[in-house]
Design goal:
single chain, 8 domains, eight-stranded mixed beta sheet, 38% helix, postsynaptic cell membrane, Peripla_BP_I
């Protein structure tokens, strides 16, 4: 509003001037502003000149497209030509361009000439467009280099060869010394030496370079820095020396390898070819490199001079794209600068001027300030760092395939190396490539992996046909070949080793199967080929097909022949002597002390504690028997009663407890030690001794394991093996024979250990595994066959095919005698063999023999003692006793004539009424006893006896023990007891029977008896009444006695029939008595099922006595 007021107040002429001024600016904006841009190009490089012009044309289209303010900016190409890398001529041409008011200069691309032009551009503030590596540029100034920095390229190359491909050797072939700058990062950071060779085609030495690498067989991976138009010649030469197979890898560093004519790669026979590119993928939309190249080629064809320019350089697609992007960036910078100020060309500037072009600095700043999202050229997005270098480059990594180059991945400063390759497609291609191939297999003959079917001792070379071989590895190769459709030939390694590295003149030299793979004489190495770190540095391995560890094999220790008295070994001979002496001494002391102490003299039966006859059970034999029983941890029928004898017994028990416990513990320890007498149990035992030598396969992975081990035990073992002559073996079979023949332990893989111990029971595995590793199939480094073979191995493992093959060759094939798996392992427990306890059986036999001998003496002595009574000869008496002993009778009766022989008459005290008397005297001298007094007559009923005649009288009980020395044992009256008697009543023994009843009449004249043919069972608790047949009842008079004698039974049961008030007596029936059975005339064992019954076993030949508790 205020401006309008001011404009109206102005004079008319001033208002007219202002209107004309504002009307002039739009009209001027529609005028074209031509800006010259210079280029210094080498003579005869028509392709670059045409590319420059085409790029300027495309930049003008970009200016017109983005010129929203219609400033009419237009670039005019101005070209100067120089001789190749002439810095003076380049400076002079640059001065000419300054005089022609150029706003920017492009070129030249040779190092010296570029440096001269950049110096002038920095001096006068003219932007200098560059599309080369720029190795020598120190002062960036006004240099605008759209080429990636050489350090970034070197870092990307290093990441690829070290992180993606894991190269360990690199040979660098270059054609220009300046190009070595871009490998600075690789050379500084690569962990392995890099061999440098110059490719000089002018001197015709390039063939010698390739031949040298082929001859030395030391390098199979190359970085090749030669112009893209030399690639075909290089590959043709490499093919001549068979260096284009799958085992060779090449990284070509020229940007334009992927755009080379595919015919150049016809020499490739499986080699890995990789290159880097900064061009955008060809399939992207928009104006691309293909369109630009087509325009350049069209321009060359239209230019008449092209036919005459025979020395013109080839068209470089990447350089053309960089030039295109550089001029497009210049156009974007001009548009940005024109928004703030008019673009005024540099006028009046010459090489002798002291001033420069001031807008040049703002133009450079505007170009470097362009954001990546605002401009994307043919070589990707652009962003510059503080020093003017392009910082956000994206390098595409391309791999060659029969269908052309495809992307492996990409690299940039932020993410590093990113692999985008489709491995499934690659695997399919490798499987396709393997079809119909005949692979060369290197191996060594070894059971059970590879065994020759033919004559092994023949001097002729062994066949390479797989049909002439057998073994686990043959079956495995057949399964893999079936999956991947390839065949193979067998070639034995000349030195019969797997491969070991040695240092010769400071260089690592390999032998065996590893060297066969390194020199590419074989495609696969198969066998018990262990995957190790050292081997994997120089060759490749598939996925392990078998896992194992290092173990020790040794001959089985034969059990020592057990002695007859091995059970005596836990204690020494003196200890056994002391134990025997202590047993005898304690027996003697116990006998003496028992004789002296009054408390060991007891009545002979507990029912008659008032008897004048005392008995001491600790006679000499019982003392020895008691002491021996306590030593054997067993009891005896004799027990001490006195304090003194119990003290002896207690201390003897304590002594036997310690002795027996010590013996038991020592016996267990002795048996355990006997089982553990193996001289070695593990690697530590092996390392601590020198008697048993040990070793492994020379040059194998096991030897390398000990050689490089840091574990003290394994280091000590390697010192022994490396210093002892002859302990390192050449083959496993020789080592096994030595193990069986000598004191030698062999260290080998556990799979081989298992194989041999399964077939030879004389061998055993000692200890566990020392490490863990696996068997794999070896391949040359970089082999394309690794992944498909590894995948096939995983399939075979998943389907249990490999497990079945292993079971077949380890458990079934070539086995004559199968060794029990338990025998090959040392267990902690084992059963005792007969040999170790046979002495116990011998001692038992000796004891039984001694008992039989003593029994014979007792038998003859007893017969001899009976001769005076029976009036027979010793032979006749022994024969009669022998006949009785061989019968099955459990009861024995003395013969009539033996009973008739009476002992001497008793003393005058006979019949004096003493309570203790001799049953033998009573039988012999019954007339001198007082006559019996019978009670008054009592009524009797069957099965029931009167209770009269016993009131006020104590019923007596007596017991009879086994007679000894022609005398019956003393009988005593037992108060408050009942008894029953089995009596023998044969017809010839009526006198004896009468004597018995006479004795009963005199001893218990008032006791009423009942005579039956068996026991009579009375059970008050259950009410069961088992009556027996009564033969006679009443007092022991002559009438009853005659009934008994005339009854047709040899044995009858006699019991008192009087009843006392109170509970009924309980009859005890146990196995120590016999119950008469009329059917077979034999005694049956009786059973007692009631508690509280008491019995006494009596084995008298005349009768048994049954006692019951009242």
């Amino acid at each position: 509003m205020e401006s309008r007021i001011i404009f109206r107040r102005c004079p008319l002429y001033i208002q007219i001037f202002i209107l004309v001024l504002f009307a002039w600016r739009p009209l001027r904006a529609y005028e074209s502003v031509e800006l010259a841009i210079g280029a210094i190009i080498e003579k005869n490089d028509l392709a670059q000149e045409i590319c420059f012009r085409k790029s300027v044309s495309e930049a003008n289209k970009l200016l017109k497209m983005h010129d929203s303010q219609r400033r009419g900016l237009q670039l005019i190409p101005v070209i100067e030509r120089i001789t190749e890398d002439d810095s003076f001529d380049a400076a002079r041409k640059a001065c000419h361009l300054l005089e022609r008011q150029v706003i920017a200069i492009y070129g030249p691309n040779t190092p010296n000439a570029m440096e001269s032009v950049q110096s002038l551009a920095n001096q006068f503030g003219i932007p200098h467009l560059q599309i080369d590596w720029g190795y020598r540029q120190s002062n960036r100034g006004f240099a605008l280099n759209v080429h990636p920095h050489y350090l970034a390229y070197g870092q990307a190359l290093y990441d690829y060869v070290s992180k993606a491909e894991y190269w360990d050797t690199v040979a660098l072939i270059y054609y220009r010394k300046e190009s070595l700058y871009k490998y600075d990062y690789l050379l500084r950071n690569f962990d392995h030496p890099v061999t440098l060779r110059k490719w000089d085609k002018d001197n015709d030495n390039y063939k010698y370079v390739i031949k040298q690498f082929k001859t030395t067989q030391t390098h199979f991976r190359f970085i090749v820095d030669i112009p893209f138009w030399e690639v075909q010649e290089f590959l043709s030469t490499a093919r001549t020396y068979n260096m284009t197979s799958q085992y060779y890898s090449y990284v070509f560093t020229d940007w334009d390898i992927q755009l080379v004519d595919p015919a150049a790669f016809s020499a490739v026979e499986g080699a890995n070819i990789t290159t880097f590119s900064i061009l955008r993928p060809l399939e992207e939309e928009g104006y691309g490199i293909v369109a630009l190249l087509d325009d350049i080629r069209l321009g060359l064809l239209q230019d008449e001079r092209f036919a005459r320019a025979t020395t013109s350089r080839r068209i470089s697609p990447t350089q053309s794209a960089l030039l295109y992007d550089g001029l497009s960036l210049l156009a974007m910078g001009l548009l940005a600068s024109s928004r703030t100020a008019d673009i005024v060309p540099p006028t009046g500037i010459t090489c002798s001027s002291t001033r420069g072009w001031n807008p040049g600095l703002s133009l450079m700043n505007d170009i470097r300030a362009i954001q990546p999202e605002n401009f994307r050229g043919l070589t990707g997005k652009f962003q510059f760092d503080g020093q003017g270098w392009r910082s956000n480059i994206n390098l595409n990594i391309l791999e060659y395939s029969p269908d052309g180059f495809r992307q492996f991945g990409y690299w940039n400063m932020e993410e590093g190396l990113i692999v985008t390759r489709n491995f499934s497609h690659l695997l399919q291609e490798m499987q396709t490539e393997l079809k119909g191939k005949v692979l060369r297999i290197t191996t060594k003959e070894e059971k059970p992996y590879m065994m020759y079917k033919g004559n092994a001792s023949s001097t002729e070379p062994k066949s390479t046909d797989p049909k002439d071989w057998r073994g686990f590895c043959i079956d495995l190769l057949n399964e893999i070949g079936k999956e991947l459709n390839f065949t193979y030939t067998i070639n034995l390694v000349p030195d019969s080793t797997y491969g070991n590295a040695k240092m010769v003149d400071g260089e690592e030299v390999w032998d065996g199967m590893v060297q066969e793979l390194r020199t590419r004489k074989a495609d696969l190495a198969v066998g018990s080929f262990t995957i190790t770190y050292d081997r994997e540095r120089v060759i490749d391995f598939t996925t392990p097909f078998m896992y194992l560890g290092i173990s020790i094999i040794y001959k089985r220790i034969e059990d020592k022949e057990a002695s007859l008295f091995s059970f005596l070994h836990p204690l020494s001979a003196p200890v056994w002597g002391y134990i025997l002496a202590a047993t005898i001494m304690v027996s003697l002391v116990l006998f003496v002390v028992a004789r002296f102490t009054p408390y060991e003299w007891k009545a002979d039966h507990p029912c008659n504690v008032d008897s004048n006859v005392l008995e001491n059970k600790f006679d000499m034999l019982n003392s020895i028997w008691y002491t021996f029983g306590a030593l054997m941890q067993k009891g005896s029928d004799v027990v001490p009663h006195a304090m003194s004898t119990r003290i002896i017994a207690g201390f003897w028990w304590f002594f036997t407890l310690i002795v027996i416990s010590s013996y038991t513990a020592n016996l267990a320890a002795y048996l355990t030690v006997a089982r553990m007498e193996a001289p070695i149990e593990n690697a530590e035992d092996l390392a601590k001794q020198t008697k048993i030598k040990y070793g492994t396969i020379q040059g194998g992975s096991t030897a390398a394991f000990f050689e490089h081990s840091k574990f003290p035990t394994y280091k000590l073992m390697w010192q022994f093996m490396s210093t002892q002559k002859g302990v390192l073996m050449n083959s496993t079979e020789d080592a096994i024979r030595r193990v069986k023949r000598e004191e030698y332990a062999f260290i080998l893989e556990s799979t081989m250990n298992e194989y041999y111990t399964q077939r030879d029971c004389a061998l055993i595995q000692v200890g566990g595994l020392l490490d863990s590793k696996g068997y794999g199939i070896g391949l040359p480094e970089g082999s394309k066959y690794r992944d498909p073979i590894s995948e096939t191995i995983l399939k075979l493992q998943h389907s249990q095919t490999i497990h079945k093959l292993k079971f077949r060759w380890w458990q079934e094939m070539d086995i004559n005698v199968t060794c029990d798996a338990n025998q090959n392992k040392q267990s902690d427990t084992s059963s005792l063999d007969v040999d170790k306890v046979s002495g116990c059986f011998v001692m038992l036999l000796i004891g039984m023999a001694a008992a039989m001998v003593v029994s014979l003496f007792e038998f003859l002595y007893d017969a001899y003692e009976r001769i005076p009574n029976t009036k027979r000869t010793l032979k006749e008496e022994a024969a009669r006793a022998f006949r009785f002993s061989t019968t099955c009778a459990s009861l024995r009766s003395r013969m009539a004539e033996e009973a008739a022989q009476l002992p001497p008459p008793p003393s005058l005290s006979c019949g004096s009424g003493k309570e203790t008397f001799s049953m033998a005297s009573a039988l012999a001298y019954a007339p001198c006893l007082p006559p019996p007094e019978f009670p008054s007559s009592q009524s009797e009923e069957d099965g029931v006896t009167a209770k009269q005649g016993v009131t006020g009288n104590k019923a007596k009980c007596c017991t009879v023990y086994e007679p000894s020395k022609n005398h019956f044992v003393e009988a005593r009256k037992l108060d408050n007891s009942r008894h029953g008697i089995w009596i023998n009543v044969p017809g010839t023994q009526s006198l004896h029977t009468k004597s018995v009843f006479q004795t009963m009449q005199r001893s218990t004249p008032t006791l009423h008896f009942s005579v039956k043919d068996s026991f009579e069972h009375r059970y008050p608790d259950t009410g069961v009444d088992d009556r027996a047949v009564r033969i006679a009842s009443g007092y022991p008079n002559n009438e009853n006695m005659q009934k008994i004698v005339n009854f047709p039974r040899e044995r009858l049961f006699v019991e008192p029939s009087s009843r006392l008030s109170g509970p009924q007596p309980r009859v005890a029936m146990k196995n120590s008595f016999a119950r008469y059975n009329p059917e077979d005339n034999r005694g049956q064992p009786a059973l007692d099922t009631r508690a509280g019954a008491r019995d006494t076993k009596v084995t008298s030949p005349e009768f048994f006595i049954k006692k019951v508790a009242c």
